[in-house]
Amino acid sequence: MRNAFTLLAFATLAASTPALAQSPGITDTTIKLGTQAPMSGVVAMIGMIAEGQKLKFDAVNAAGGVKMGDGKTRKVELIIMDDANEPPRTVTNARRMAEQNKVFAFVGAVGTPQNQAIKAYTTQNKIPNIFIYSGIYEWGDEKQNPWAIGMVPSFTTEAAIYAKYLQDNKPEAKVAMLYINTDFGQNFLDGFKAAIKGSKVTLVAAQSNANTDPTVDTQLTNLQASGADTLIVATAGKAAAQAVRFAAESGWKPTVFVTYAASSVITLKAAGLENSKGVLTGQFVKPVGSPAFDNDPGVKQYLADYEKFKPRFDRHDSLGQMGYLIADGVVKVLEQMKAPTREAMMAAARNMDKVELGLLYPGITMTTKAGSDDFPIEAMQLFRFNGEAYEPVGKLIDYEGRTPKL
Amino acid sequence: MIARPHLRIIATAAIALALVSVPALFPDFLVYQFSVALTYAIAILGLNLLMGFNGQISVAQGVFFAIGGYTTAILATRYGANVFATLPIAVATASLLGLAVGVPALRWQGLPLAFITFGLAVLVPPLALKLEAITKGATGISMAKPAPPAWFPGNQDTMLYLCCLAGLALCVMIAARLTRGDTGRSLRAVRDNGLIAESLGINLAKVRLATFVTCSGMAGFAGGLFAIVNGFVSPESFQMTKSFDFLVGAIVGGITSISGALIGALFVMFLPDWAADMNIALSGLIYGAVLIAMMLLARDGVVGLIRTLATGLGAYLAQRNAHEQPEDRQSRQFQT
Amino acid sequence: MMQLFLQQIVEGLAAGAIYASLALALVLIYRATRIINFAQGEMATLCVYCAWQLNQWGVPFILGIVIMVPASFLFGALTFRLMIRPVLGASDHTMVVICIGFFVGFEAIALSVWGADPRAFPRLFPDHAWTIGGVRFTANNLGILATLCVLTLGLSALFRFTRIGLAMRAAAAEREKSPLVGIPVETMLMLGWGLAASVGFIAAVLIAPSLFLSPPMMVPVVIYALAAATLGGWDSPAGAIVGGLIVGVAESLCATFVSVIGNELKVGVPFAVMAVILLARPRGLFGSTAVIRA
Q1: Residue A71 CB contacts under 8 Å (≥ 6 apart), including other chains
Q2: Rounded to 5 degrees, what are φ and ψ at A390?
Q3: Which residues of B touch C83 (CB under 8 A)?
Q4: pLDDT of amino acid C167
Q5: How many Å lie between the alpha carbon of B263 and the closest alpha carbon of chain C?
Q6: What pLDDT does A125 receive?
Q7: Residue C292 pLDDT exceeds 50
Q8: Which residues contact B134 (CB under 8 A, 6 or more apart)?
Q9: Which residues of B touch C225 (CB under 8 A)?
């Protein structure tokens, strides 16, 4: 009688406790992830971020898969979709990946308006959208974006780092800025203005450009005419190369900073290696190709994977490397996930304790803490190009926990 | 369209039935994609009126589409208006700009108009960025999608789809009224020979302008619906590729046909996805190749191809039957 | 301020030379075939990539270009033969979609073979620069302008003074009637496409150093080139050059001195230029016949 009673009690309890919903896209042997980037069109360069992620996941799968936090080893199936930089297409792709392909989560999705377009959908359907490739401040706002988290430093952080370098090394600098007329450039400009407040560094001219501009000579002529002695280039690949070349060939020769997204050796090669001597950039990725890092295990791993799988980008392509880095971060999150659920993924992503990645510059780690710090990477190292490779300049500049808010 | 009224009614009813059953037959994300395709169909329909009956090529349909979209988004978020109530205003603002462009466009025909409208289309994202105060610039405007009312048996995707379908039906009825009867004859006269049309007493300028304004008004309506269905607008949502998509959709569907607009919309919506599915690196090449192949095989668009096939079939059947029943040959007169 | 004004004029002329180059190719194809293939730039980009690849494989730079001139001619002629000739009688609309197909397809080929990264392309002219009165001129820009002038003179002479030029113009203007006087229309049109492809290639070689070689290299230039050709007159090669220069200078001056336009809206300058010229003088500055019919 008592046993039956206990059995009945157990049965009732089991029936009334809601069973933990099994998240889609995950089995005992595989986990499905989805990513989007512009793979065609005017900004197809940026699509290499998706290819970089594929490279890392291919390598991980070839080595047997990821040993996840719940003890099971799973292979990663990455679905890449092209949104041609159009937010409406990002939405249709996201819905398709979630509802038809049943992905577990979105990773490394590219673009600010693109991710904002799918924000309502991912929040409503509780789908993780981790390590977004966009540096606007709001991805660090947990209340606004409970199911999203960024990865790359906020655009304001990079601007502040350049401001700090100038304050320490060229305190009376007169700065001219070329910025791209998107959320990135505008955030960067505003962040820089805020960071130099109260110092003797002044912003004497700022000119915007768009992807529809064939050349940026008009803007650079104006910037040169302002009498500035420092040029900050906060724009995308081709225009950045044009700017670097102009700065040298026109005879102006200011101190030149180039944003990390546009400062790969490939861009500098296009601008002319001689013209690019002395270019400064802030980076959080190890300089692949720099002799000082030839024996670095992370770099060697990347190059070995590159040789084995031969992705569609040049080994020095910084966007491909970025994708590789993002995927590495995803792997670390998978390793930390305590349960095979979407909630567990977000919890793991929001509680990373000084996680090191193969290509992350020594001293820079991913750190987040739910409730207080939602920016994984908040530090950068400044580098100077010596005509062949990048050399580090000065010490790591760390904004851990202090990402500047606009 | 086939001249025989019975066949036309049957065909229309069949298409309508197929469209209404979409939410029941397809998964939610496809219903959503179909909704967006329907908004494109409305914009393309307007363009068909302009190109098929006015004989003008416009690459600016995306501009009016963007105006409609932003009008709806701004009114809904800044002034808290009900999203559907904003649609007439979206039509009005787009039509006003259509008037402003249509007046000088009277003097420009053929390719010069195409280039000027191309120049306008390129201006949309920078303008949207510049007018940051009302458009919120690069950040874009997010709006809540309307929830279905309590009495509605389906979900949000289904409701929005049916709203777009209703919008398309409305525009189809307007287009049908314009292209049949007296106005239709005026339009065709203006298209085929402007001088003779004028000598018949048709006010060329008035007819052309009215068509241009209708075309842009429809695009504005489509843009407003697009904003509602997407819940988000930004400068990147309205790049010049949109205008090219509408142009391609109109021509591939068949510019003198109302049903062509729907075919063209489905084409530009789904072909890029299929091309990317086949090979993401070569998707552009596949898309371009398909476009060229379509024009080589069906230079008047899909509807044109269907008509040609139907004429051919009809003539073949007529010939066959002529051998069997010569006296009935008179009663079989197939027309396109 | 004066110095900046003058320098911006020089920059505008340099940019204008870029627009004029593509405009010349567009005007050429219009004059020779009455079809405006706005994908001319994309075809030229593919040919420049081939020249670049030859250089990568060790072929001397100039030799590579010399090889590619007839190769682009063949490319243009083949494109015509395979994909335009079958639809010659079709409406403008069909042609527009085919050109859009070219636009997307050729760029996709370049993207898949060579990738999206911008690359340096060597300049044809030495890296000299002179500064007069604080204003800087480069040998490269002057070289581009000079080459364009030579090309224009050559093309104008071809069309005006040679029998084959006359035949090409006749074939383009009167497709149905020209065979009656013994002109092989389709051959002439094919020649026209080949010639336009070669000129387009040369123009692209001139401007690739400034634009950096990448698959969408010519995409931002198209709207400016269309405005330049419209301004100059669609049947005037000289008009294309002058139109391009005017558009370039207008753009840089408006971007710098008209704050309402600034950098953000300077892509509206082509639109404004076209609107003005089509209202004031639809045939363009140097155009002879009325291209637009009521």
Answers
A1: none
A2: -90, 135
A3: 292, 296
A4: 87
A5: 16
A6: 94
A7: no
A8: B74, B78
A9: none
Which is nearest to B273 in space by CA: A86, C177, A103, A222?
A86
Q: State the best of A35, A36, A39, A40 to mutate against chain B, taking most chain B CBs within 10 Å.
A: A40
DSSP string, B105-168: HTT--HHHHHHHHHHHHHHHHHHHHHTHHHH-GGG-EE-PPPPPPTT-SS-HHHHHHHHHHHHH
Give CA separation, B327 vs B31, B311, B315, B324, in Å.
Answer: 51, 21, 16, 9
- Residues of A at the B interface, defined by Cβ within 8 angstroms: 39-41, 80-82, 84-89, 91-92, 95-96, 98-100, 111-114, 116-117, 119-120, 181-183, 186, 210, 212, 312
* All structural domains of chain B with their residue ranges: 28-239
pLDDT band at B330 (very low <50, low <70, confident <90, very high): very low
* Complex ipTM value: 0.90
A391, A290 in Cβ contact below 8 A?
A: yes
DSSP A266-286: HHHHHH-TTTTTT-EEEESB-
Domains of chain C, by residue range, sit at 2-217
Mean pLDDT for the stretch of residues A82-90: 93
The band of A20, judged by pLDDT with boundaries at 50, 70 and 90, is very low
Average pLDDT over residues A98-121: 94
Q: What is the pLDDT of residue B328?
A: 46
Within 53-112 of C, beta carbons closer than 8 Å to A belong to: 108, 111
C191: closest CA of chain B, how far (Å): 21
Residue B133 φ then ψ, to 5°:
-55, -35
Only one residue has tokens 């041609």, namely A84
* Residue with token string 């800044």: B78
In the predicted model, what is the mean pLDDT of residues C167-189?
85
Q: Which of A279, A280, A260 is nearest to A271 (CA)?
A: A279
Alpha carbon distance B212, B63 (integer Å): 13
- The per-residue pLDDT for range A223-265, each reduced to its tens digit, is 999 999 999 999 988 899 999 999 999 889 999 999 998 988 8
A302/A294 Cα distance (integer angstroms)? 11
Query: What local confidence, expressed as pLDDT, does residue C293 receive?
Result: 45
Q: Strands A174-180 and A202-209: what pairing?
A: parallel
The interface residues of chain C toward chain A in range 132-151, judged by CB-CB distance below 8 A, are 136
Question: In this structure, is the dihedral angle defined by the CA atoms of residues A307, A312, A317 and A320, taken in order, positive or negative?
Answer: negative
Instruction: Give me the pLDDT at residue A8, please.
Output: 53
**Six token digits for residue A287:** 């300089």
The 10s digit of each residue's pLDDT in B124-136 is 999 999 998 999 8
